[in-house]
Amino acid sequence: MTPQTSGARVEIIDLGAAYGRTRVLDGIRLTVEPGGWLAVIGPNGSGKSTLLRCVLGLHAHDGLVRVDGVSTAGMPRRARARQVAYAPQLPVLPEAVTTRDYVTLGRTPHRALLAAPRALDRRIVADVMARLEIGGLADRPLRTLSGGEQQRAVLARALAQQPRVLLLDEPTAALDLGHAQQVLDLVDDLRRQDGLTVLSTLHDLTLAGQYADRLALLSGGRVAAEGGPDEVLTAAALQTHYGARARVVSGPHGPAVLPVRAVEPRL
Amino acid sequence: MTGTTDAARSGHTSTVTASRPSRRRPALVLGGAVLVLVAAVLTGVGIGAFPLPPGAVVLTLLDRAAGALGGGHLAGGLDPTGAAVLLELRLPRVLLAALVGAGLAISGAAFQGVFRNPLADPYLLGAAAGAGLGATLVIAYSPAQSLGPFGIVPLAAFAGALVGVGCALALGTAAGGSQSATLLLAGIAVASFLAAGQTLVQQQNTEDLREVYGWLLGQLGRSQWSDVGLVLPYLGTAVLVLLLCGRALDVLAVGDDEALSLGVHPGRVRLLVILAASLATASAVAVSGLIGFVGLVVPHIARRLIGSSYHLVLPASLLIGGAFLVLTDLVARVVLAPAELPIGVVTAFIGAPFFAGLLWMGARRR
Question: Could you tell me the pTM of the whole model?
Answer without folding.
Answer: 0.84
